[in-house]
Amino acid sequence: MDKRRLRGAASNKIGALDRLTGDEALSLLRLLLERHRELAKEVEALAGLVIGDVSVEDVADEIKNSVRALDLDDLNSRAGSHAHGYVEPSEAAWELVEEVVMPFLDDIKRRAETGKPDAAMAICAGIVLGLYRLRNNERDPFLGWAVDSPDEMAGEAVVTLCKVLRKAKTSRGDLKDSTTLPMVFRKAAPEWVEMLERCWRHPE
Fold first, then answer.
1. How far apart are the C-alpha atoms of 176 and 184, rounded to whole Å?
2. Alpha carbons 181 and 198: distance in angstroms, whole number
3. Considering the chain, what is the average pLDDT of its residues?
4. Where do the domains of the chain lie?
5. In 107-142, which positions are buried (b, 16+ CB within 10 angstroms) versus exposed (e)?
């Protein structure tokens, strides 16, 4: 094998870092910080950049695609008679949609609680936008069983954002004290503005 082919083979080799799982990468980072405490401030700053880096469109696409990926096989596996009783198809469909959206609601809380209210709002706006694109779904084989789930879960996202911003006291004054729904949500879901406004004003 000539030198050029050897260099090519070396460049294609996957290193140990590329094979780490998320938990392994986190363990490695903690070990590195234990050994090199002088890196703590730089790592903290970089973490802030990562946590604050949110694309509304990316979140919207992920929400929409994840819900769209649910099908009748998922519904049939959840609905019907089980050891703990009978589950209505509509109830099962709602549960499945909630399970898709809940990690994103948790992400809203995480971003706000780490001092990134704008990122939390971007996550929430992405959720609302993605769900808004799933409205008018009466004829969808899966979503037809949970017709109101997109707007209801969008409202839940706004409630989650409002609560966590107030609790963490990390929002800007105009957001924390305002009773007017931020414009980003008005643009994301114009047909849901009245409902989202109520959620923003009265999150309790």
1. 15
2. 9
3. 79
4. 54-201
5. bbbebbebebbebbbbbbbbbbbbbbbbbebeebeb
Question: For the whole model, what pTM was predicted?
Answer: 0.71
CA dist., res. 41 & res. 46, Å (int): 9
Whether 78 contacts 95, CB under 8 Å? yes
What would you measure as the largest C-alpha separation in the chain, in angstroms? Answer: 71
Q: What's the pLDDT at 171?
A: 44
Q: What is the pLDDT of residue 170?
A: 43
pLDDT at 51 over 50: no
Look at residue 86 and give its three-state secondary structure: strand
Q: Where are the alpha helices (DSSP H) in 36-148?
A: 40-52, 56-68, 72-78, 89-113, 117-132
Calculate mean pLDDT across residues 141-150. Answer: 92
